[in-house]
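Sequence only, no structure available. Ideas?
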Amino acid sequence: MKKYLLSILFISSLIFSQALHTENFENYSIGAFNNWTIINYSSGTPNIPAAYRPPVLQVSQGNGGQGKILKITTPNNQFMDRYEIKNTGNLGTLWSGRQSGNNVLRVKFQLYTKDIKSDITIGLYDSQKRMIVGLTIGLEGRIIDGYARATKKVDNTVDYYKVSLLNNQFNPPNVLQDIVYTYDYDTGKVTIEGPYGIGVLDAANTQYNPIPNQEIFEHRMYFSFLSGVQNGVMLLDNYQIEALPFSALSTIDHKSEDQTFKIYPNPSNDYINVSYPNIKNIQFLQIFDMNGRLIDNPVASSKINISGLPTGNFILKVLTKDGNIFTEKFIKK
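Reply:
I predicted one. Tokens follow.
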């Protein structure tokens, strides 16, 4: 089981997240995994015709110290069809019974999709099977786009806000990528973060309005097959859905797992020096504000010019060629 690179610190014992569903697959034996339901989308039932070949779910041993993971195999199929995978827990009931004030729902998991041969949709849905927030995966896992249900400001019609999370550029073999998305029930604000992109939909968006108070019913995965596709594999781990207060989101302290990743001087008003001697094969750097908006893509260097940034708190994110992500907070004076 891969370690997370973000540590969450709470400023008060009254501020905490509430786990609604969590699964790291460590408590299962290697082999078939039957705790999640596979449904044939055409019939709407688990009664899948014998001639059809739905996805196969197995608990598998990950590489190195990864621990156990869920392996989803899409067999060679003779028929065009669609399958739905969902956990057996009733998310809608759990959400309705959440503790008072925990009105932000956060979904986070790790996945590897490069070998998949079908189109996949993963997300949070209402009872009418309309996605609230989630992602789509295509082109054998090399393109990942985040989506959030919203209304267009120009005519108030319902549409989907889209953000590119992985665009056919880099997906190292057998590396699990971190995916996180949140939905604020009170305001409709959505954040979606993937390996190489982050999107925020809130009232400040110039094209879309977020939709608050949407019905939270279930978290699902959809696999769409074309006839004659070859076998493909998707890996999933550290799957967690939680309810938390909005204030808890602002208490995330982004820390590098490798404590040799340092920023100084901090605070600074012009330049920051960045030291990361033990981080190898750096792909690129990104700077985000505390609302999750991408502000800059500085050149990977030991000295970064921040004079053009407004006063405030920011996150420097380092992404490596082997899929690791390191983050550290700094302050612009």
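Helices lie at 91-96, 246-249.
Hope that gets you unstuck.
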